[in-house]
Write a structure and sequence with these properties.
The chain contains 23 helices and ten strands. It is of the alpha/beta class. The two termini are 31 Å apart.
Length: 512
C-alpha cells in the first residue's frame, strides 16, 4: 500500500476529503491529516510519503513550500493541490513543480475527487513498475548514469537543490552542453480532440524514443506540455536540434517548438533551463519559426490600460469605438518589446473590464485560461476579438437563451450519448443545441463537472470495456466500435486509465 496524508487549515475540508475516499480500497494507507505544512513535515519524519494532498494557502507553512520540502525528501512524491478560485498563480507554480492536478474547494465533488485519487495511484503504480523494471534490467552502467543525472538535474532546476551533487558525480561529462526546452504546439487542439491525458502520453513517447535511440544526454518532462533535454555535441547546434526535432515529430505525429542555450558546464544548468524556456517563448512573435536560440529579451513597458475609455464604450455599447480601441492596443502590443506573459495578462485585463458584470467567476476564469494558453500573438488577437464579439452581442441585443440551461444540457447529453462512437466535436454538439462553441464549453464544464472531450472519452472507454467483456472482437474492432480511430492511442489510453492493456483486461474480466 502507498502512504497518503492530507494538509489543510480548515477542519471541515480535511474531514470532507478524508471521508470522500475508501483509502484502503484504493490501495492507500492513511497516515493522517494536519492543519499546516510544518506539522505535516514533522509527521513525515521517518516515514515514506507517496501521496500528499495539500491546501495552498495555510498559516505557518503554505502548501507550495511544503511541496518543495517534501519533494526534497521524496523525489517520487505525487501531489494534489487544494485551492480556491483566487489561487491560480500558486496552482500554476505547483503544477510546474510537478503536482499531478488540483481541486477547487467551492466545486469539490466526492466522485471526481475519488477519480483523481485513482488516477494518481495508477501513476504511482506505473512509476514503481518502471523503476523496478529499470532496476532489474540495469543493462548498462551508462543507462544507470543517465537516470542518475536526470534526477540530479531535476533537483537542481525544479527544487533548487545544491549544485555540489552534479559536480561530484558528473564532473567527468564532456562539455559544452545543449540545453533544450521542447514544447508541444497546438495544445488546445490536442486537448479538444483527444483529452487531457493525450499530452502526457505524447511526452512519454518522446522520452522513450530519446532513451532508445540517442546514446548521450537526458530528457524528461518539466510540465504537461514541455520536455527538457541536456545534450553534448561538438556539431552545429541548429543541425543537431533540427535532426532530433524531425525524428521526434515523425515518431509522435506532432509538432514542437524548441528553445535552446549552450552552457559551458553543469554550473550553468539552471540558467540554461531558464534561458532555453525564454527562447522558446519567442515563437509567440515568430509563429513561422520553430527553433530559437536564447537572446536577451529587451524589457519594455505597456502604457497603462485606458479603463475610462473602456467604460465609455460600454455605456452605451459602441462596437466601432471598441474596434478602434483594440486596434490601438494591438499596435502597442507590437511596438513595445514586452514578454508574451505581459501581453496575455493585458488581454485578460481587457476581458475583465469589459465583462466582469456579465460573466460569473467560472466563465471569467475560463476566458483567462483560454487566453493564457494561446501560443502566438496573432492567435491571441483573434481569440480576444472572438470572445468580445460573442459576449458583446449578448449585451447589445440583450439576448436570452431560448431554453433553460438544464434543458439545453439535457439535449446536448442526449445527442452525445447517441453519437459518441462517431466523430464528435465540440463545434458539432454546440451547433446542435444552437449556442456558441465557447459558451457551450463553459456551460458543459459548469453543469457536468468535466471537460467535453474527457466526458466523451469516458463514454468510449466504458463502451470498450463492455465490448471486451462480452464479445470476441479484436482489439482494433473494439477501438473502432467505441469511437477510437487510432488503435495505438486507444490501447495506450485504455492501459493508462484501467491499469491493464485491453487484452489483459479481457482475460481478467470476460465471462467463461
Amino acid at each position: 500500500m502507498y502512504n497518503v496524508m492530507i494538509v489543510d487549515d480548515e477542519p471541515v475540508i480535511r474531514f470532507g476529503l478524508k471521508a470522500s475516499v475508501e483509502w484502503a480500497e484504493e490501495g492507500l494507507h492513511y497516515l493522517g491529516d494536519y492543519p499546516n505544512g510544518e506539522e505535516a513535515l514533522k509527521a513525515a519524519e521517518g516515514r515514506l510519503v507517496d501521496l500528499l494532498i495539500t491546501d495552498i494557502k495555510m498559516p505557518v507553512m503554505d502548501g507550495i513550500t511544503l511541496m518543495k520540502k517534501m519533494l526534497q525528501r521524496f523525489p517520487n512524491l505525487k501531489v494534489i493541490l487544494v485551492s480556491s478560485y483566487t489561487d491560480f498563480d500558486y496552482v500554476r507554480e505547483g503544477l510546474k513543480l510537478g503536482a499531478v492536478d488540483y481541486v477547487l474547494k467551492p466545486t469539490l465533488e466526492p466522485e471526481e475527487f475519488v477519480k483523481l485519487i485513482q488516477k494518481t495511484v495508477e501513476m504511482i503504480k506505473k512509476e514503481r513498475l518502471v523503476e523496478e523494471k529499470l532496476q532489474l534490467a540495469n543493462q548498462t552502467t551508462f543507462l544507470s548514469e543517465r537516470k542518475k543525472l536526470e534526477q540530479a538535474i531535476k533537483k537542481v532546476i525544479l527544487e533548487d537543490s545544491n549544485l555540489n551533487e552534479l559536480h561530484q558525480k558528473f564532473g567527468w561529462l564532456q562539455e559544452p552542453f545543449l540545453m533544450l526546452t521542447m514544447s508541444l504546439n497546438h495544445v488546445d487542439k490536442l486537448e479538444e480532440q483527444h483529452g487531457f491525458l493525450f499530452k502526457t502520453m505524447l511526452l512519454e513517447d518522446v522520452q522513450n524514443y530519446f532513451y532508445k535511440n540517442i546514446d548521450e544526454g537526458i530528457c524528461f518532462p518539466v510540465n504537461e506540455n514541455q520536455m527538457l533535454f541536456l545534450l553534448y555535441t561538438s556539431l552545429d547546434p541548429y543541425a543537431v536540434i533540427e535532426k532530433l526535432k524531425k525524428e521526434i515529430e515523425l515518431e509522435t505525429n506532432s509538432s514542437f517548438t524548441v528553445g535552446f542555450e549552450v552552457i559551458r558546464d553543469l554550473s550553468f544548468v539552471k540558467q540554461g533551463f531558464k534561458r532555453s524556456g525564454s527562447a522558446r517563448e519567442r515563437r509567440f512573435f515568430n509563429p513561422g519559426a520553430s527553433i530559437f536560440r536564447y537572446e536577451p529579451f529587451p524589457e519594455g513597458k505597456l502604457p497603462l490600460l485606458d479603463t475610462a475609455s473602456l467604460h465609455q464604450i460600454l455605456l452605451p455599447y459602441d462596437k466601432q469605438s471598441l474596434t478602434d480601441f483594440l486596434s490601438r492596443r494591438f499596435q502597442e502590443w507590437e511596438s513595445v518589446v514586452i514578454s508574451p506573459v505581459d501581453i496575455k495578462n493585458d488581454a485578460c485585463e481587457i476581458i475583465r473590464y469589459l465583462f466582469i458584470k456579465q460573466l460569473n467567476a467560472d466563465e471569467l476564469m475560463e476566458k483567462y485560461e483560454q487566453l493564457k494558453k494561446i501560443e502566438t500573438l496573432d492567435e491571441l488577437k483573434k481569440t480576444l476579438l472572438l470572445q468580445i464579439r460573442e459576449y458583446s452581442e449578448l449585451i447589445q441585443h440583450n439576448q436570452q437563451l431560448p431554453l433553460g440551461e438544464n434543458v439545453i444540457m439535457k439535449k446536448a447529453l442526449d445527442f452525445i450519448h447517441g453519437h459518441y462512437t462517431e466523430e464528435l466535436t465540440l463545434q458539432l454538439v454546440s451547433g446542435h443545441v444552437h449556442i456558441s462553441r465557447n459558451y457551450f464549453s463553459v456551460l458543459f464544464k459548469r453543469l457536468v463537472g468535466q471537460n467535453f472531450i474527457d466526458y466523451v472519452m469516458d463514454l468510449r472507454i466504458r463502451k470498450a470495456k463492455e465490448l471486451l467483456e462480452n464479445t470476441s472482437l479484436k482489439v482494433y474492432e473494439v477501438a473502432e466500435q467505441s469511437g477510437f480511430k487510432d488503435v495505438k492511442y486507444f490501447s495506450k489510453l485504455f492501459k493508462k486509465l484501467m491499469g491493464s492493456s485491453p487484452i489483459d483486461f479481457r482475460t481478467k474480466n470476460q465471462s467463461p
